[in-house]
Each structure stands twice: as structure tokens, then as C-alpha cells.
Amino acid sequence: MNSLHLHIQLNRSAFKLDVDLQLPGQGITAIFGPSGSGKTTLLRAVAGLEKNQLGRIQIGPHVWQDTHQGIDLPTWQRPMGYVFQESSLLPHLRVSDNLNFGLKRALKSAGNAQSDAARALQASIELLGIGSLLQRMPHQLSGGERQRVAIARAIAMQPQLLLMDEPLASLDAARRQEIFPWLSKLRDELKMPMLYVTHSADEVARLADHLVVLDKGNVKAQGPVSTVLTQVVNPVVVGEDAGALIAGHIGQVDTQWHLSRVDFDGGFLWMRDAGLHVGKAVRIRILARDVSLATTEPQNTSIQNQLRSSIQSITPDAHPSQVMVVLKCGAEEVLARVTKRAVEELALQVGQTVWAQVKSVALVA
Ligand code: ADP
Ligand code: MG
């Protein structure tokens, strides 16, 4: 019951949004799609900012909109946090005053007790690690710090839902790297659903639990992130970025060779030691172009990682010389992009057992 139902229909002269989604009531749902696919419009509709939107918006037990029942709460009665690409901090106020400014407004509308609000504010300051920034002015913060303050301010109001519209898009690569751990922490610790708009496959792989892919105002695919990212029919991520996302944990650290072993349902993979301790949960990404196939167990190879797996499907890829092979490896799926000629020469078939040789593994979270 603790889930989101977003059924939204909206017509503009040159654009139509039509979605009907049941989403998890906790964690990050990424809304992914090309520019103009309706991601911002979807968030604005959830916030009640769009004119002429029909349907039903329910957050857990709270109904924000139901056209049949004549319910349509105005934006100020929808308890949500909204974080934009450019931070919306007030430039003339210190960080602490920016945080309190939002809170006073929320208190007025929600009627929360003062002490509750103070506790929620303190918790969000700790969650986003901004305790040492409270006396600064916004212009004394880096882009990443500004966004952390904006997120802390949004969740201090204890909203029912957190909306984030490309919150990292205005940051450079280094600042983005800095903020990822904070967003992962938010995902793992916050008991609040989050809709996170992005057009970056990297952000989806690192942060999302659930994935909705929009295309021209319609839902092209949706589901748990590892399932949707690896789907080969109607691929969500095409080209060089296509690959698998696997959840596992550190099983062993080899200090002599600076490697750590990631164990998952289906086998294990060695990767560069990133200083994580045994038992730590991790997500790894294996790009399809980094996987090759052998029909017998490879011997005398420099490749450290081989996964015994079975071929689940073989699908034509964008270029006529290539195919995408989906491998079942325990409960996980791995993708391999190989040439059609290799498929022919090795007589690869669905159901066959093969060894996937994995040339490179990236830690994404
Ligand atoms: P995204 O966030 O995925 O880039 P948007 O939701 O901003 O996409 O836009 C979806 C479509 O609606 C686009 O075709 C865009 O041109 C159009 N659009 C966006 N805002 C308006 C507006 N205020 N009036 C009319 N059309 C708009
Ligand atoms: Mg947008």
C-alpha cells in the first residue's frame, strides 16, 4: 500500500503526456529519457503545476488528485520537496537562514510541532553532511555543496515525496563525483519516495532502484533498474554504454595484488581494490563491449574474470556486423556484444553453456 500511483494525462498543442505508473514507496525512481520526452512535465504535473491535467496522483495513503472524485489539491497543499538543476537558494541569506526560511513556511502549512521540525532539520543537516557550511553565504559554496543544501532544505520539511529535476546537470564531472555518495546515502536512509529526473545513464546506474523510461510523453519501459537497463528488445541504453548492472558484495580483498572480489548470485568477479571492506554491498557495471565469449573454459588467458553462464538470447544490434548476446549467470544477466561472424563460427545457440570473459568491471556505487 505504501506506493505511488501516478496516472496522468495532459494535452498541449504539440505534446501529449500519458502515463500510468505504480512505483515503489521508497528509494529512488529515475525518470530517464531524451530531452523533450516529458520528464519535467511529469514532475510539474505531480506538483500540480500544470493546467488541464487529468488522472490520479496518490502518494501512499494520500490522494493529491483524482479527477473522477473531483479532488485536485493545489500545489501548496501537496507536501513535497522540489530540487532543480540550478540551486534555488536565496543569495542574500546564510545557509542556516536558507534552511530555516523553508521550514517556517512548511510549519505554517502542515501545522507540525516546532520541536519535530527542529529535529527533522538537524537530521537532514547530518544526512547531507552540511553541518560545517551553516554560516556560509551561498556564493561561498561549490556547486555540489549548494545542491546538498537545497536537498537538505527540501527534506527538512518532511514532505511525502521528493522531486529532483536533473540536480547534477549544472555540475562539472568532479563536483558530480563528490555528490554521488551523498545521494546514495539519501537513497539508502531516507524513508521517502524520490523521483529523480536525469538523461544520464551513469546517474541511473549509480543511483536508481527503479527506472521509468519516457519517450514522447509515453512510458517506453519501467521496472527494477537492473532489469530495465539490460533489456535488449527496445534497449534503453544503446551504443557504447549498453551493459549489465549487478548487485553483489565484497567477498575478499587481496592486499598483495590490490584486488577485491565481488561475489554475486552467479559467480564472482575480481576488480581493482577500492578500499571497501569485506561484506560491503556494491553495484558493478559490465559493459557489453567488454565481454567476449568462449565455448570451453578458457586457459592461459590474462583475463581474470570468467563467468560460466548460459545463452538466453541472441539479438541483432545496431550495426549489421554485431549481435547482443544475453547471458544468464545465476540470477543475474550479463550482456556481450560480439560479431555475427563469431556467433556463426562458434555455432552459438540459445541454451548453450559458455564462458563470458569479462575484460573490465566498474564499481558504480
Ligand atoms: P524534458 O524535461 O524531458 O526535456 P519537457 O517536459 O520539458 O521535457 O517537455 C516536453 C514537451 O513539452 C517538449 O516538446 C516541450 O517542447 C514541450 N513544452 C515544455 N514546456 C512547455 C510549455 N510551457 N508550453 C508548451 N510546450 C511546452
Ligand atoms: Mg527537463
Write a structural description.
With about 375 residues, this protein is of the alpha+beta class. The protein folds into two domains: about 5-235, 3-Layer(aba) Sandwich (Rossmann fold); about 240-365, OB fold (Dihydrolipoamide Acetyltransferase, E2P). The protein is built from eight helices and 21 strands. It has helices at about 40-45, 95-110, 115-125, 145-155, 175-190, 200-205, 225-230, 340-345; strands at about 5-10, 15-25, 25-30, 55-60, 60-65, 70, 80-85, 160-165, 195-200, 210-215, 220-225, 245-255, 260-265, 265-270, 280-285, 290-295, 305-315, 320-330, 330-340, 355-360, 360-365. It has a six-stranded mixed sheet with strand order 7-8-9-3-10-11, with helices on both faces. A hairpin with a 2-residue loop joins β18 and β19. α2 (about 95-110) runs parallel beside α4 and α3 runs antiparallel to α4 (about 145-155). The radius of gyration is 23 Å and the shape is globular. About 40% of the residues are buried. The structure holds adenosine-5'-diphosphate and magnesium ion. Magnesium ion binds near residues 39 and 40.
Task: Please give a handful of descriptors for the protein shown.
six-stranded mixed sheet, 24% helix, Rossmann fold, 365 residues, OB fold (Dihydrolipoamide Acetyltransferase, E2P), alpha+beta, five-stranded antiparallel sheet, single chain
CATH topology of the largest domain: the name is Rossmann fold
Q: What would the average pLDDT be, to the nearest integer?
A: 91
Tally of individual domains: 2
**What proportion strand?**
35-45%
The level 1 CATH classification of the largest domain is: Alpha Beta
Q: What is the first-to-last residue Cα distance?
A: 29 Å
Give the SSE string. Answer: EEEHEEEEHHHEHEHEEHEEEEEEEEHEE
Indicate the percent of residues in helices.
10-25%
Question: Which spans of ≥5 residues are poorly predicted at pLDDT below 50?
Answer: none
Architecture of the largest domain, CATH level 2?
A: 3-Layer(aba) Sandwich
Tell me, what's the shape? globular
Hetero ligands: adenosine-5'-diphosphate, magnesium ion
* CATH homology superfamily of the largest domain: P-loop containing nucleotide triphosphate hydrolases
Structural class estimated from helices and strands: alpha+beta
